[in-house]
Structures are given as structure tokens and as C-alpha cells.
Design goal:
This protein has helices spanning about 15-25, 35-45, 60-70, 85-90, 110-120, 140-145, 200-210, 215-220, 240-250, 250-270, 270-275, 305-315, 330-335, 345-350, 365-380; strands at about 50-55, 75-80, 95-100, 125, 150-155, 165, 165-170, 175-180, 190-195, 280, 290, 295-300, 350-355. Helix 3 packs parallel to helix 4. It folds into 2 domains: about 15-250, 3-Layer(aba) Sandwich (Aspartate Aminotransferase, domain 2), CATH 3.40.640; about 250-390, Aspartate Aminotransferase, domain 1 (Alpha-Beta Complex), CATH 3.90.1150.10. The chain has a 7-stranded mixed beta sheet, with helices on both faces. It is of the alpha/beta class. The protein binds pyridoxal-5'-phosphate. Pyridoxal-5'-phosphate binds near residues 87, 158 and 179.
Length: about 400
Amino acid sequence: MQEPIPFNKIFRSGGEQQAVASVLESDCWHGDGPAGQRVESMLGSWLKSRHVYLTTSCTHALEMAMMVLGIGKGDEVIMPSFTFVSTANAVRMQGAEPVFAEIRESDLTLDPVDVSRKMTSSTRAVIPIHYAGVSADFDALYEKIGGHGISVVEDAAQAVGAYWKGRALGTVGDVGCFSFHDTKNITCGEGGAFLTQRDDLAEKAEWVREKGTNRTAFLRGEIDRYTWISPGSSYIPSELLAAVLEAQLQKKEEILLSRKTVWESYHEQLGEAYEKGWIRLPVVPEYARSNYHIFHFNVTEEKRRDSLLKSLREAGIGATFHYIPLHDSPYAVTHLGRRDRLPVTERLAASLVRLPLYPDLLPRKEEVAGRVRDVIHRFFKHGSTGGAHCR
Ligand SMILES: *Cc1c(COP(=O)(O)O)cnc(C)c1O
């Protein structure tokens, strides 16, 4: 068998060890130290964001977003069902109701038409996800929600360094949330960021992130002691993690370019399978500039997806599916009132395949994409007739 290609491999900039070592030699290991501040200003100037706060995860940034917007019991927040569980948990933890809407067939982002169907007088916020690093359709979304006092929180976990009409994702809505988990493009293991362009939300974010106190303003020398201002928690990552992030960010162009090149190689090799109607390839709308976080495609006959995954894995390609839609999850079924069917989401989730995509694949992109192509062609020309291998 040919060499196995794992689904993910962490990018090393080469600078992480030295960066961590210098923190360990210093007497500042806690968060908001010099490295943390440097990373926040790097992100701020790169992405043109007025406020950037590092957090312990994107999950925590999403929780902060719900807290600073004052979302609570009786409020509804619309989001795609096709997302990571943290999007919905953030809402639920404040006692509010997640309301699930469809995604669009073309790019798997939140469907603004279905959002408008799901809006009620209790809708307080919408959380679009930029799936695979491709922007949600903000023009269409704002057209539907405009004038109703609905906030937009971007779950930009996958979208660091991706753009909508030249604006960095994470800076378009009221709040943007990033992830630096080690499955994402830029990582410190576990980490995230909270972005906002609104001064009122930034002030509250500083309190919530620092245990509900105004200690951040105190550290800036703006007040002479700090105290309890609001409910809050501990969402500041340690200086050790910030140092890793700083080393990674120094290589962000290299990361982006190598991912793009590998992505394009898959796209090219799978063109024929698309023309034959076996699969549907991802679409990047012209308003979006991707950061190439995921390469995915949809199998036209969804019942054959699982056996195709099996064939790819047998050929050593670490291909995988993605989210199980949240509206169908055990928690949603037993604890959330609404039971809408979401047929488009269900079909797209059941037919999705993700391929390995990371900078290490750059030197062997032709070989890997060629192997994937061969498996797909063999599978659809002579493969099993579906169902037989379904687990
Ligand atoms: C990865 C991811 C998250 C969670 O990020 P963490 O940093 O692991 O908390 C949330 N939402 C989406 C869409 C993600 O892809």
C-alpha cells in the first residue's frame, strides 16, 4: 500500500520552541503579557480590526459574544444546523434558544432566505459560519435582517485571513470569533480571539474576559484599582500560548499560499469527476476570498458517500465526513422545542467528503491529488452500488 496521508498535520513555523523558551525564562507566564499584546496588535493591523482580544478558544469567544450582547432567557439566535456544537452551546449556556436554519447548496454557508423564515420578534442575533474559510453572503443576510435590531456574530473559527469584499472575516459583523485549535490554519493548540469594531462591546468584553472585573483598564493605567463590574469568567490564554501563536503568525503568508496550492491541485484533478456528474465541487462566490481551510466535495448520490470514504481510506487517503447536523442531535431532540426538518442540510451533510489539506502536502500535491482522482474514478466506474458498505 502507498504511504498513508493523514487527514491533518500541524504546521510548524520553526520558531515555536524559541518563543516558548523565552517566555519560560521570563517572569510573565500569565496572559495579556508582552507576547499576548504583540499578537493582538499583529492581528489588529493585519485584519484592520479596531479591537482584538485573544481568548482560550473560539468556543469561549462565542460565549463572550452572547454575554456582551446581553442575550438570555426568551431570546432566539439563528444559526446553521451544519456547524460545530460550540455555536449552539454559547447560546444555550445563556439560557437562550438556538434556532437552526438551512445552508445553501452552492457553498454550505447560512441560507439568508431560510433565516428570514426563522425570524420572530424574539430573534436577537444571527451567527453565520464561514464554512471552509468561505464568507457567508453578508449582503443577502443584512437585506433580510436589516432594521430588526438583530446582531451578527461571525463564527469565523475557520476563517482567519479570509475576506468578504476586501474586509477581513471576523470584522464584518458586530463580533467575530476565531479559533487557533490545532485543526485550524494557524494554531497554538487551543486558542481563539474575540474581535469587535464596537467600543461598547469591547469594554464589556474586557470585563467578561477578566473575571467580570475592570482589571484590563487598570493594567493600562486608566484607573487606580480594579473591582467586580459584571458577571465574567477567565478567558485569557497564557503567555506560553500567545508565544506559539506569534511564531505561527510570522509564517501566515507561507501557510496560506501552500494551502491554496494544494487546494487548487485537488480542484483541478477532480474536474473530470465533476463533469461526469459524480461529485459537486465547492464554489467560492466572487465576493469571497478563501483562506483554504478545507477542501471538500459532495457525492451526487449521497448513499454512496460512506463507501467512497472507505475506498479512499483503503488507499491510504485520510478522507473524512464533517458535522452531524445539530437539529438532529440527541440534545436538540430532547431539550429544544422546535423540530423543523432541514432537508438541504441533511442531504449535504450526508454527502460531504473532506480531503487532507495542510502545508506539508505542498511538495507532493500532484501525487496526492492524483491518488484521490484515481480512487474516485475507479469507484464510480466499477465501484460497489452503494449501501453495501454503509455503517
Ligand atoms: C473549530 C470550530 C469551533 C471551535 O473552536 P475552538 O477553538 O476549538 O473552541 C467553533 N466553530 C466552528 C465553525 C469551528 O470550525
